[in-house]
């Protein structure tokens, strides 16, 4: 059934023209329009677009001078800082491939990414040098030739390194084109979050990221008058999309290294922030914050992504602040955005992930074969096709073949489409709980747990059972100042669920384990249950 034909005209996103340019050209074009406008704010540092472009040119020329060439891999191992953004764009102008590294990585994880990506160079935040030194003392790293470090001097015993500041000072700020860069050249190699096993590199081209920036801007329509507060990690594809998109539209971005509630409120007021981008745990934190949120008075949108957003806390936040709160959807393999809500508040459906972005197609297919397309309202696996979809996994053809089939990206997410074209995600395919042959979506049960007034955060897993296959076990974190009674909470939830979905066990814990993008680490909870 063609869902697009059933949509009301205001819900249909027609195809748009995507420019055939390299990634750096988006910000260069914005800088031509707004040279003296603030592009980046970081503590007391304010960079105009003219200054940002000059620094990008200097970094690009410096990287070329030390020997980096098109196709080489450069790891960026920093927290959210201007150096990350500027170096990413500078590398793009050379055709160098950027592989962002999670700054919370320890020795084993950093070594894996450096070795697997065959990185030729690395930019390291000064505070993270000891971990890099440990890696270098225990691993050969034959490909790694160039080490750049933030700060004004080289840390002790960091042989062969150069400071980022020195490279910037000695390099020309004039734009120089070296090897021609095409839209189909590789640009980014982010590594998946690695909730199981070691992370995989995801191959994204200039076309992928340029397309997704344009799709983001066309769907959400931020302008050069908007200011975004960005604290989501830049090493994650969500953060990469945000920083690139707000530079492409000529907007201003205020950078935080990490989320801090009181600091975020101060920055929103100080810089008249209009867009705040979050993950579900921050929606929970804001909805339940025992403080005045009036400093958010200029904020027009709070957008959540990276994991399913429970509707009830989002409603509470919206009622509390009057700010439009909504969720979108994407994944690293799609650069990441594939779905976004309509701009018109009257058309937003909070429980859904919204409508397809421009130039994107989807199907809901049966879980058994992955081939039969299902009608509206029926749950199956969501598959995606569009210009933002990755080229594959780095050096992993078998893994690539599992998720890229006949041009379609198999997301591993379970959901359905309604008659108007809105998409609803129920859960991850591999996280579905099987109870006597019935499939149970953890996210559905979690959303109900979060409706109970004593529950501040929640997660659900399946635990083995000889008769049923799996039973539902819940974990909750009590809301501050509330007494949580497990029996009463189970009764509350189970009275609102079909019998086969009911919670059999409920445990109170101090915190729900999650990765940096807000996804619940169910394997950690399963290990806890197994060892109990």
How would you characterize the overall build of this protein?
The protein is of the alpha/beta class and 532 residues long. Among the domains are: 1-14 and 358-429, Luciferase, domain 3; 24-206, Rossmann fold; 432-531, ANL, C-terminal domain (GMP Synthetase, Chain A, domain 3, 2-Layer Sandwich). The chain has 16 helices and 28 strands. Strands 2-1-11-10-12-13-14 form a seven-stranded mixed beta sheet, sandwiched between helices. Strand 27, helix 15 and strand 28 form a beta-alpha-beta unit. Helix 3 (49-65) crosses helix 4, helix 3 crosses helix 7 and helix 11 (280-287) crosses helix 12. The longest helix has 17 residues, at 49-65. The radius of gyration is 23 Å and the shape is globular. It starts with a helix and ends with a helix. Mean pLDDT is 92; it is low at 1-7.
Q: How are strands sequenced across the largest beta sheet? A: 2-1-11-10-12-13-14
CATH topology of the domain at 24-206: Rossmann fold
- Please report which band the strand proportion falls in: under 5%, 5-15%, 15-25%, 25-35%, 35-45% or over 45%: 15-25%
**CATH architecture field of the domain at 24-206:** 3-Layer(aba) Sandwich
Helix content: 25-40%
Summarize the structure.
The protein is α/β, with parallel strands linked by helices. Among the domains are: 1-14 and 358-429, Luciferase, Domain 3 (Luciferase, domain 3), CATH 2.30.38.10; 24-206, Rossmann fold, CATH 3.40.50; 432-531, ANL, C-terminal domain (GMP Synthetase, Chain A, domain 3), CATH 3.30.300.30. α5 packs across α6.
